[in-house]
Amino acid sequence: MSETHPDVSEAPNGSSTQVKCEVKTWHLSQKEDGTPEKTSVEGFGHVEASTDDYALVVIRKLDKNHNLESTTLDVNSPFILNAFRDVVKSHPTIPSDFSTRVSIPIPSEMLFHHWDDLQNYTSDLKDDAAHQHLDLLLQFMEFDMGAARKNYLSQVRSGLVEFARLGVLFCPGDTVVTYVKSHPWLLKVEKTAYETNEKRGKYCEIQCSFSDYDGEKYGVSKHLFRIYQKEDFGSDHPSKILDLKVFPRECAPDDKDLESRLRERGELFLSITGILVRQYDGPAEYLKTPPLEFFHPDENEWPQLWMPFTETGRVIIDRKTFEQDHPSGIISKRSFESLDTALCPPYVLGYSCSRKNWCRYYVTNLREVPWKTNAFNELILPQSQLNLVRALVTSHNFPTDARDEEQQKGKGLVCLLHGPPGSGKTLTAECAAEITAKALIRASISELNKHDSPWFFEFELTKLLRLATTWKAIVLLDEADVFLEARRDDSHEATNRNALVAVFLRHLEYFSGIVFLTTNRIHVFDAAMKSRVHLALGYYEPDKEGRRRIWKQSLEKLQQEDSELDIDNISEQLSKERLNGREIFNTIHTASTLARFGAERLHLSHIQEVLGVRRDFETSLEKMRHSALGHSAEVVSQGSILNEEHDKADS
């Protein structure tokens, strides 16, 4: 504030008798020639003497038209400064420890926040001189800010607040409430500031702190809220406090148990450490990232964008790895015991095995995973194959450092599963994850190469394998045909494919985890790929006995109260239907849905009705195949369901 009153010297360091218990008022304006002019003003507490001799000095700056631009209060009184040290201690709007003279912009958020505290402090004073100086300050506050304070308090009692008074509403140190997808979250206010955005206009930024854990240490993190005038306020009209994205705890609806509930939730939050695989069911949010080719110079300053979705299934909780990819940082390190658990966020950060995105997961929706240690009993495979797969996946050693490529080279386990759809390839990988109690990350080659670019494919593949190694997860890569067939050089498409294969082989060489590759067909096996496969298992369409076992296993999973079935007899009867494992499961699922729609228990008639619809579809498909073959063989494209039926017929 020195530029507004350059002639005011520093306050004396002598005894309090050097400072008069009076107010000096100055007006700073400009003469016609533009030079500054300082005028002593008659009025509140005015006397003629050096300004250093006065407890309070009021400086009002005027523009050329003598309109008030700003008001500053200089505090010289050691009694008032001592009161500030005792009552206020510190305030983000005043960069001072109150040991020497301080300049305060008026109206002052600090004085608003501690109005009642200063009044109580003054009433308890025994020293007459100190009491007089504090009374003088309170008189000035009432004279200059009293009307504004009364209006503010009246609005707050009505549940309203003006945009210009948000800095008063959010007092540093106060507890505030926000809701994240209906989950309450308590935070502490650190400071507020008014800023302007070129597109969205003026806004008030509220910086808050909360208890946090970044995967390695406990501490206090910061969170910023921005309340925009145009969006939340109608011009200068007040807005409802409870309609704001964050509001003081004292303004919240009466909920006496809120702190205790959030403290219990916070203890759960702080107990989630390390890498954990959990079951999740409920709303969540995934982190939306810009395309890889996107660039903006201010991109790092943009807030993270979280998009809502519903998650059902296994998730991996790992704050440390998230921070390595998206560092946010902790303001200050604290001991676990010193943290207020009521201030912990309602969510933890983890990875969605289904979406393959970083996500926010609400801690109250996390559950322990009910691992199926006997999952291999569901596989209809020769016992020798089951024993081999079980031995390999349970005995595999993962590296300690996922980023040390030399440590990982040649130490992975690559399993190739080939056979027709619905024969149990995917189920094998799922069972391997169950018996080892590890996450299963499933991806298709088309997902990894959705931009048809070797560079993008390598980026996605590297990220997937690095995360899988870090979490000791099992990887399932579907549609691996493109990497398994022998390479050719007879076309541009073949050249692109060869580039993808080269990338895949190189990263597979340095992957030390467990990966399952699935394919429906292999015509010519690539030699380089063959040398990297540790185990190759062939799968076939189930025979009659295999179908009976699949029907029996699938029907036994139904709740007894949901069905009226003689499972042994029905399984024997239904095994005559030439279906694969996936088709059997889908049939039972559809029949169960049909039964629920009719508010009935599952009967054989429901299954037969679904099978009848399926037979009609097969008949129509056969007619379409004959019609297509009769007109042009080119209509039947490779990989279509018509062509698959044609292949079956020919075989």
Largest sheet: spatial strand order: 12-7-8-9-10-15
The top-level CATH class of the largest domain is: Alpha Beta
- Secondary-structure-based class equals alpha+beta
CATH homologous superfamily placement of the largest domain: P-loop containing nucleotide triphosphate hydrolases
Question: What is the terminal-to-terminal distance?
Answer: 92 Å
Architecture of the largest domain in CATH?
3-Layer(aba) Sandwich
Largest sheet: 6 strands, antiparallel
Helix share, percent: 25-40%
The low-confidence parts are 1-17, 44-50, 635-639
Keywords: Hydrolase
Pfam families: AAA (PF00004), AAA_lid_13 (PF23232), DUF7025 (PF22942)
Protein name: P-loop containing nucleoside triphosphate hydrolase protein
GO molecular function: ATP binding; ATP hydrolysis activity
Give an overview in words.
This protein has about 650 residues and is of the alpha+beta class. The chain folds into five domains: about 15-155, no CATH class; about 165-260, no CATH class; about 275-365, no CATH class; about 380-540, Rossmann fold; about 545-635, Orthogonal Bundle (Helicase, Ruva Protein, domain 3). Helices cover about 35% and strands about 25% of the residues. It contains 21 helices and 23 strands. The protein starts with 19 loop residues before the first strand and ends with a helix. Mean pLDDT is about 85; it is low at about 1-15, about 45-50 and about 635-640.
Give the gist of this structure.
The protein is an alpha+beta fold.
Describe the structure using short key phrases.
disordered N terminus, alpha+beta, 21 helices, 651 residues, single chain, 6-stranded antiparallel sheet, 5 domains
